[in-house]
Task: inverse folding
């Protein structure tokens, strides 16, 4: 009897109260939404990662939120993946993306870091970009705010009106990727 392979679902963000509900933490928000939907509680910590285990439509999933800052998220996630014998290609990473308009998401099967420090850290640590991503559009910053101010800033009133819907759509996209594969997810959500 072969043992089912678990998948690793990673939400990227920054730890601490100062970063809660910021654009950079939308990965944490999506992973929380998925765990809540399936009544799975984040109740474990190992290698500077909050995580939990559960099943989504029969698929074993390990949900993970690295508690290292975004640009250092690779090493703790790699340690957790290694601990659970999860290969890079069995990982789905959810992260913010300034190159996508707010309220858009895009599923990608693998690739480069695109300037995202969290993705860069994962690629540097794993030695490959062969993991799926769900890119969450947070829009481009205005000149006054700059990139750092934008991604570390909170959502505007207007953005907050659509945030619940965006998080639910991202949850549905992740569940589709987990259950039906990345190609089906891309066709349905991109």
Result:
């Amino acid at each position: 009897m072969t043992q089912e392979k678990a998948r690793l679902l990673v939400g990227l963000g920054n730890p601490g109260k100062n970063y809660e509900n910021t654009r950079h933490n939308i990965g944490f928000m999506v992973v929380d939404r998925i765990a809540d939907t399936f009544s799975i509680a984040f109740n474990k910590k190992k290698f500077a990662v909050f995580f939990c285990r559960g099943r989504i439509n029969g698929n074993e999933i390990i949900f993970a939120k690295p508690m290292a800052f975004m640009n250092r998220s690779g090493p703790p996630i790699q340690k957790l993946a290694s601990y659970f014998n999860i290969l890079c290609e069995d990982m789905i990473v959810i992260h913010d993306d300034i190159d996508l308009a707010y309220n858009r998401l895009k599923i990608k099967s693998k690739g480069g870091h695109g300037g995202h420090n969290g993705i860069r850290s994962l690629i540097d640590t794993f030695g490959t970009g062969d993991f799926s991503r769900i890119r969450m559009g947070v829009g481009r910053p205005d000149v006054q705010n700059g990139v750092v101010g934008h991604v570390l800033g909170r959502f505007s009133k207007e953005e907050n009106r659509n945030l619940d819907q965006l998080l639910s759509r991202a949850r549905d996209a992740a569940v589709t990727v987990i259950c039906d594969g990345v190609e089906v997810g891309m066709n349905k959500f991109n």
Observations:
- The mean pLDDT is 93.
